[in-house]
């Protein structure tokens, strides 16, 4: 029984280490996205056309899906898709 508990604790520590590493990766990606947005997605504001609007809309769609998942909204609300 003690060996099982030790193994479970070791597995928990490995999982926690990996999870915290992934949280760090998320924070790095969020910082990159903030820079991307601050730079107008790499587009010159003087050159914006409807194609750029569509591209920005696609990015908003993807980010909305992630925030809906994080905050249990939309399809991820209670009773929705999981």
Characteristics of this structure?
72% helix; 2 helices; 0% strand; mainly alpha; 82 residues
Give a description of the structure.
With 82 residues, the protein is an all-alpha fold. The chain folds into two domains: 38 residues; 37 residues, no CATH class. The chain is built from two helices and no strands. The protein starts with a helix and ends in an 11-residue tail after the last helix.
Describe the structure concisely for a colleague.
With 82 residues, this protein is an all-alpha fold. It has helices at residues 2-38, 50-71.
Written as H for each helix and E for each strand, in order along the chain, the element string is: HH
Please work out how many helical segments DSSP would assign: 2
Percentage of residues in helical conformation: over 70%
* Rg over alpha carbons: 20 Å
* Structural class category: mainly alpha
What is the count of β-strands? 0
Mean model confidence by pLDDT? 95
Can you tell me the overall shape?
Answer: elongated
Number of domains: 2
**Proportion of strand residues:** under 5%
First-to-last CA distance = 35 Å
